[in-house]
Design a protein that fits this description.
The complex is a heterodimer of chains A (864) and B (134). With 864 residues, chain A is an alpha+beta fold. Chain A has 26 helices and 31 strands. Chain B has 5 helices and 7 strands; from the N terminus they run ββαβαβαβαββα. In chain B, α2 runs parallel beside α3. Chain B is α/β, with parallel strands linked by helices and 134 residues long. Chain B has a 6-stranded mixed beta sheet with strand order 1-3-2-4-5-6, with helices on both faces. The chains are: A alpha+beta (864), B alpha/beta (134). At the A-B interface, β1 and α3 of A face α1, β7 and α5 of B.
């Protein structure tokens, strides 16, 4: 805080002086904010890149990167204080809070939003392994990231376990018993029985019961009128991960609300049965590595249930998956106690059924007993010989299981159930302890892919590593996404967060344009979908329906399906995404990277709402740009430069104020021509405006309606503005920057642009409003402009006759060519509203304009 | 905490020893090199790596610099003294021109700053192999 106090003192003293810093100084501060802003974005994107899997990094890197990010964000806020002459206390407070959380994480103290003894499954994901155990952390992922249905419920956390065990002194007692066994004073069986008995009769602390009751209340509210019965399952540390502990711990099915405390004790006690305890001791687990979280999920009224392996453990079916299914509840299948149907499916979409064995003697089925627990009963006659799954259910189950495998990059053992409404529920998923076989002689990736045709390679940036095979689906419009076929590889022109909604169905993403810094990249990492952005060529070289394999680890796209690559991935010894360093970096990035302050027009766009460094950075950037526009428009007396008139054959009336290298003309010159403009954005814009031949000089013939409308508006305007006959337009420029305010006739255009060599700095903001004709015509012109801007990759907003477009983060060349077209567009649309009599004109002018600017574009591309 | 991991080694495979006290580095490098057709042994502490070097020759050694006990620079010296023919690649998160210079003076083949791409280190090793072969 010392650093902060010093700064506040300085600002306090400084504010008291009434002098404003010279514009040039403020502009340099603005530039430094842009540079730092870019540095922070780059750093964040670098950190994000490390999660992509291409890099080898260690803990030292994570520490250094966080420190560097903190340092730069602090300085960014300080710079804003100077630019805007304010102390920004709330921003500094937000900064301190985030920095503190980063420090806590780095020093090994988890900053978890909740350390309560009971958590709803809705709030759980893979980052909560310590709190809810592996099994329920996975269920959280499946629910929140993969969007697959899992039963509602809650988890008694490991905190609850430790509270419960300490409350009754059980942990110490267990240690004491272990010691007596080691000293051969007591047999192993005896100590197990002793501790189990003790746990089963032990009271549960009040706050755990209170947590349970409020979780139950929330579930009751959601399932009004239903009788709530639960499956109470173990979820111990390490269970279902490297060590499966398969079947060691207890699950209690069909438990009523009142029965939960007893079931909880039973599951906790099952950690100390002979088998379980022995298993742990045998594998070198220490007692302090034992913690038992317990999950309670609503029972699914299962019509059919079973298990599914995404890799069939059959030597002849190496590329197949297998479903075992029976009528009724799942344990029957899992424990092999019931007759079940078996389906072997192709691993590749659409997962054709390769063979099926429907058991004709499914005479008994396991069902929930009305008084709690489960009971065997006779299968209704009509079901005994029937397949327990429909073809549709098989397909849906296969897709869901493959999504889980794709996410964890391991073959999966998935327990599932279909309820009486035909809904699928995923009950559990754990890594399958088999790996696809890879012949010894072919462990070399180069050999395996030698015969595959490469469509392109080394283009763009890998956002998320991994391998995907599937059919290409090119999405060019929003509504295309509704038909997005499961298992396809999404190919698009741009990155956009809107593609998030197809991620659960997509197996890979490739884009032409886009930065690895974007929101979509973050989503792709969340979903762990192999993704490559900025390839330039994807939509050109690929077509919908093409079968391809994308290797987003070695950044290569192959034609056809290269099965070896998929097998290699599934056979890796350790999944990078499951390492400690990956998880730590990911946790830290959650406090750095997500952007919550998206829309500057909303009430939430304020310092108090900054939850991450990205939020702070975004806020500072917005405020800095606002301030600069304000300064250049409203504080002309502080410009220590002589405005120069732009000489042109067009009646622009443009005055240019150069603040830093934007003009190549003598200080004392009163006029400048196009060749004197050194400012990159202004030069591009004027070239488009002046040299494109788009400035319509022919008087436009008006129909009577437009004429009357324009007449009244002219009269009003003449009254309201003394200078309406002479245009006075202003551009404030530097070498890379332009703030242009153009009033041409009766509409206004504002263009704010920054273009230099660093794509991340670059932006063009464009605003257009007004006109001389009736609202219908003006808004048609606005729609036409919006259409062109969208064609030029702008993000566009349209409100009546107001068009606002923003373009960001493209290369200098692209930015300049687009700014040039904006210039042409300003000329082209000058009087266009008059001609916009009907909606059909919009499309007509759209293609006319694009046709006319074509030669200019080509000439520009030739130059670049 | 001597962690020692040996992969199945074929007779003609190039043999690589990797030493880094951050386990994650070994965990990531080992499968990447194995997949590319190398035989790999990894160590998380310099004492056990040194003991291994004292008993056997490796074609290539990849070592971190900053470590507890015997640091990477000393380890590099020891490898070069014991097996002058063995090539050493230094990987470090504290890359400075001085440490780079010192590594080269002590006979390192290359100096790679952490974090690095898997492809980068594989390329370095390929270049090194090409040089060894001649």
């Amino acid at each position: 805080m010392k650093r902060l106090n010093g700064l506040f003192d300085f600002l306090g003293r400084w504010r008291s002086s009434r002098d404003m810093l010279p514009f040039l100084v403020l502009f340099r501060k603005f530039r430094s904010i842009l540079e730092r802003n870019n540095k922070i974005l780059e750093l964040m994107s670098d950190m994000g890149d490390k999660l992509g899997g291409e890099y080898v990094f260690d803990r030292q890197y994570i520490k250094d990167a966080c420190e560097m990010a903190s340092d730069n964000v602090f300085k960014l806020i300080s710079d804003l204080c100077i630019l805007t002459k304010s102390d920004n206390v709330e921003l500094f407070v937000a900064f301190e809070r985030i920095q503190h959380e980063l420090h806590e994480e780095l020093s090994g103290r988890r900053v978890v939003p909740t350390v309560s003894p009971v958590i709803s499954i809705d709030n759980v994901n893979g980052d909560f392994k310590e709190e809810v155990g592996n099994k329920f952390a996975v269920i959280g992922d499946i629910k929140s990231f993969l969007g697959l249905p899992t039963p509602d419920g809650f988890v008694f956390t490991t905190k609850a376990f430790f509270d419960f065990m300490e409350y009754g002194g059980h942990l110490k007692y267990a240690q004491k018993l272990l010691a007596s066994w080691r000293n051969e004073e007591l047999p192993f069986d005896a100590i197990c029985d002793e501790i189990v008995k003790r746990i089963l009769s032990s009271p549960i602390p009040k706050d755990i019961i209170a947590g349970m009751n409020s979780a139950l209340k929330a579930i009751s509210k959601k399932h009004k009128g239903e009788e709530l019965m639960f499956a109470v399952r173990s979820s111990a540390w390490g269970e279902d991960s490297g060590f499966s502990f398969a079947g060691q711990y207890e699950s209690v099915l069909n438990v009523s609300k009142d029965g939960i405390p007893d079931a909880y004790r039973k599951v906790v006690a099952s950690a100390y049965t002979h088998e379980a305890w022995h298993y742990r001791l045998h594998r070198g687990f220490r007692e302090h590595e034992m913690a038992m979280a317990v999950g309670c999920q609503l029972m699914v009224s299962a019509v059919a249930s079973g298990a599914m392996y995404t890799y069939a453990p059959l030597p002849l079916e190496k590329e197949a998956m297998v479903i075992s299914s029976a009528w009724g509840l799942g344990p029957a299948v899992v424990q092999g106690t019931a007759e079940s149907d078996m389906f072997i499916l192709d691993r590749m979409p659409p997962h054709k059924v390769l063979s099926e064995e429907v058991d004709l003697h499914k005479d008994k089925m396991l069902v929930s007993d009305s008084s709690g627990g489960t009971v065997w009963k006779d299968t209704p006659e009509r079901l005994r010989r029937r397949s327990s799954l429909s073809p549709y259910q098989i397909e849906y189950l296969a897709q869901s299981a493959m999504n889980i495998e794709r996410y964890y990059k391991r073959p999966q053992d998935v327990e599932w159930a279909f309820d009486d409404k035909g809904e699928l529920y995923i009950l559990q998923a754990r890594p399958l302890n088999i790996r696809p076989e890879i012949p010894q002689a072919r462990t070399d990736v180069g050999l395996a892919t030698r015969s595959a045709e490469i469509i392109f390679s080394g283009k763009g940036t890998v956002v998320q590593q991994g391998v995907a095979s599937g059919k290409v689906y090119i999405a060019l419009k929003d509504d295309d996404l509704n038909d997005f076929p499961y298992g396809s590889i999404l190919v698009t022109r741009h990155t956009s967060p809107k593609y998030g909604r197809v991620m659960p169905r997509a197996h890979g993403i490739i884009t032409d344009i886009g930065s690895p810094t974007g929101h979509m990249a973050t989503l792709a990492r969340e979903y762990r979908i192999p993704a490559i952005v900025g390839t330039d060529v994807a939509t050109g070289l690929l077509e919908t329906g093409d079968e391809i394999t994308m290797d987003a680890t070695r950044n290569t796209i192959y034609r056809g399906s290269v099965k070896e690559l998929t097998r290699f991935e599934l056979a890796e010894q350790e999944v990078f995404e499951e390492t400690y360093e990956y998880r730590l970096l990911k946790r830290l990035l959650r406090k750095i990277y997500p952007l919550h302050l998206v829309d500057s027009r909303t009430r939430d766009f304020r310092p108090e709402k900054c939850l991450t460094f990205h939020d702070i950075t975004r806020y500072v950037h917005e405020k800095a740009v606002e301030k600069l526009i304000d300064l250049s428009e409203n504080y002309q007396k502080y410009h220590d430069r002589v405005p120069k008139r732009f000489k042109s054959k067009l009646p622009l009336g443009l005055m240019v104020i150069d603040i830093d290298g934007g003009l190549d003309a003598p200080q004392e010159a009163k006029t400048v021509a196009l060749e004197n403009i050194a400012s990159m954005p202004l030069k591009a814009l004027l070239e488009g405006l002046v040299n494109s031949g788009m400035w319509g000089t022919e008087p436009v013939s008006m129909d009577i309606g437009s004429f009357m409308s324009s007449l009244t508006r002219t009269l009003v305007s003449t009254h309201s503005s003394q200078n309406s006959s002479t245009e006075r337009n202003l551009a404030v420029v530097s070498r890379e920057y332009m703030n242009l305010n153009l009033k041409l006739g009766y509409h206004y255009t504002v263009v704010n642009a920054f273009i230099d060599d660093e794509p991340n700095d670059n932006y063009v903001f464009f605003r257009f409003m007004g006109g001389v004709t009736d609202f219908g015509r003006r808004s048609r012109r606005a729609r036409f402009i919006a259409g062109i801007l969208e064609h030029l990759d702008f993000l566009v907003e349209l409100h009546g006759d107001l068009v606002a477009g923003r373009l960001k983060k493209m290369s200098k060349e692209r930015m300049c060519s687009r700014t040039m077209i904006i210039g042409a567009l300003i000329g082209y649309t000058r009087q266009l509203d008059v001609e916009m009599a009907t909606d059909s004109h919009i499309a007509h002018f759209h293609s006319d304009f694009l046709e006319k600017v074509k030669p200019m574009m080509e000439a520009f591309n030739g130059r670049a | 905490m001597a962690e020692h991991n040996i992969s199945v080694s074929g007779s003609q495979k190039t043999r690589i020893l990797i030493l880094d006290d951050e386990a994650i580095v070994c965990k990531r490098l080992s499968p990447a090199f194995q997949k590319a057709g190398y035989s790999v042994e990894t160590f998380n502490d310099s004492a056990s790596a040194k003991a291994r070097i004292d008993t056997d020759r490796f074609d290539i050694v990849i070592t971190d610099l900053k470590m507890e006990g015997l640091d990477g620079m000393k380890f590099l010296e020891h490898v070069k003294e014991t097996w002058p023919e063995t090539s050493v690649i230094v990987i470090t998160g504290f890359a400075t021109p001085d440490t780079a210079k010192e590594s080269f003076r002590k006979g390192a083949f290359d100096f790679v700053a952490k974090p690095f791409k898997l492809g980068e280190i594989l390329d370095t090793v390929k270049r090194l192999e090409a040089k060894i072969k001649g």
